[in-house]
Amino acid sequence: MNRRQLLNRITAATAAASLPRLAFAQGPGITLSLGAGATGPTIPADYVGLSYEAAQFANPDFFAPANKPLVSLFQGLSPSGVLRIGGGSSEYTSYSDQDPQGPAPFEVFGPDTSKTVKHGTVTTALALRNLRGFLDATGWNCIWGLNFGQGTKENAAAEAAAVQRILGARLILLQIGNEPDSFRTRYRPAEWTPADFIREWNVFHDAIAAAAPGVKFAGPDISNKLDYLTAFAAETPKHPDVVMLTGHYYAMGPAGSPDATLEQLMEPDPKTTTMHADRVPVVQAAVKTAGLPFRLSEGNSCWDGGKPGVSDTLGAALWCADTMLRFAQYGWIGVNWHGGGNGFYTPIAGTPSAGLVRRPEYYGIQFAQLLTGATFVPVTLAGAGRFVTAYALERQGKRQVAIFNKDLTPATVTLPAPAKRSAMLLTGPARDAREGVTLREIAVKPGRTVTVPPHSAILYSL
Questions:
Q1: What count of other Cβ atoms lies within 10 Å of the Cβ of residue 124?
Q2: Among the residues of 118-244, which ranges form H helices?
Q3: Are 123 and 152 in contact (CB under 8 A)?
Q4: DSSP of 22-59
């Protein structure tokens, strides 16, 4: 499915929806200007990704071609996305070549928290064969995480060999461990250091590489301690089979924190322990040291499963799309939003038996997907408040402008050239709306001055 087919799917599904009534913009207008050329990064075709817990594979029927509703939902996000398997439960799983006996222990596994860790879950060859069929049906590829925290190098090697053999070309690479920077006092002594991590990682790496010749690796898949990323980046020249740096990002958390609010999520740089804007240079320095790209392998709005009324709202969808474009502008090559089960932040919620549904964040991902393959053009906003952001991109000589208005009043924007007569609108009844969020094509009046409704994002073609 190409971009035009994706656009047709979105517009056909929402053709009956009507454009919300636009209020008059409050305050002075905003002027948007563009640079002369497309000089920024290009968003890769496989930029869009989702992240799921490894424990999900204790049920081999979830990621399977027979789960057609899930296949359709993945196809609706991207024709060539990346499914990352890992999460906290990956440090509790093991691998077996034997097919499972008896019923699966659960239908779906939700976001991994201290309340839902599933001990002793087993990934089987059957689950991997079903995953291969699922990936073939969706057109997606896979990043697979191995048990490093509590596993053995022997089991990791056996699992890696099976994953490589069964997933074949659908396997992008392997990761050894999930958030190793948080192993201290959990799986390792309190004094465990980045140097200790590198030494142990090398032992696992060598065993896995011997069992799965030619397989590629990424890491360190950190939570928030950037010294582990810096140490890993310095180690990568010794390992030509390491092809990517990875880490996690949650804008806020934990979910029980009173500071984890929708208002905070709307801020340009939400309070976070993982990736404040002033920490991005450390990531970029690691990228330069390693000579490798960076992918956000797991993240979402609020860690510990998300927060009701925050992570499952239109505001979260706007945050999601805005954040994806901001990270792409850094040159990062992908974003994998974490989810599963009925977690509040999951883009796809529910169960196959009861039904799978799109949460608001799903539409935010779709919005960003519309810009894959395009190259960033420098953009300047004059007169904009902190809740209005914009991005400009160019594809085959044609320019598009994405404007986000996370404020509660409309924004009047003067564009550098007239917008075409149609645009894509991401909106809903209110910023905290959990239902009624849509992404659809709308008509645009001729002229350079446009009005962006409150709590919405519009993608214009110039």
A1: 19
A2: 125-138, 153-167, 194-211, 226-235
A3: no
A4: PPPPPSS-EEEEE-SS--SPBPPTT-EEEEEEGGGGGS
SS3 107: coil
Residue 180 tokens read as 């190793």
- Would you give per-residue pLDDT tens digits along the chain (462 residues)? 444 444 444 443 443 333 333 333 344 689 999 999 999 999 999 999 999 999 999 999 999 999 999 999 999 999 999 999 999 999 999 999 998 888 899 999 999 876 777 888 999 999 999 999 999 999 999 999 999 999 999 999 999 999 999 999 999 999 999 999 999 999 999 999 999 999 999 999 999 999 999 999 999 999 999 999 999 999 999 999 999 999 999 999 999 999 999 999 999 877 655 566 778 999 999 999 999 999 999 999 999 999 999 999 999 999 999 999 999 999 999 999 999 999 999 999 999 999 999 999 999 999 999 999 999 999 999 999 999 999 999 999 999 999 999 999 999 999 999 999 999 999 999 999 999 999 999 999 989 999 999 999 999 999
Residue 232 near residue 287, CB atoms below 8 Å? no
For residue 381, what are its two tokens? 């906003």
The token duo for 117 is 């860790």
Counting Cβ atoms within 10 Å, is residue 229 exposed (0-12), middle (13-18) or buried (19+)? Answer: buried
Q: Which two tokens stand for residue 251?
A: 């804008």
- The gap from C-alpha 95 to its chain's centroid, in whole angstroms, comes to 26
H-helix or E-strand containing 369?
A: helix 360-369
The DSSP annotation for 233-274 comes to: HHHGGG-TTEEEEEEEEEEE--TT-TT--HHHHTSSS---SS
Report how many helices (DSSP H) and strands (DSSP E) the chain contains, helices first.
10, 22
Give dist(CA 197, CA 228) in Å, integer.
8
Between the CA of residue 317 and those of 176, 358, 359, 456, what are the distances in Å? 31, 11, 9, 9
Judge contact between 337 and 365, C-beta under 8 A.
Answer: yes
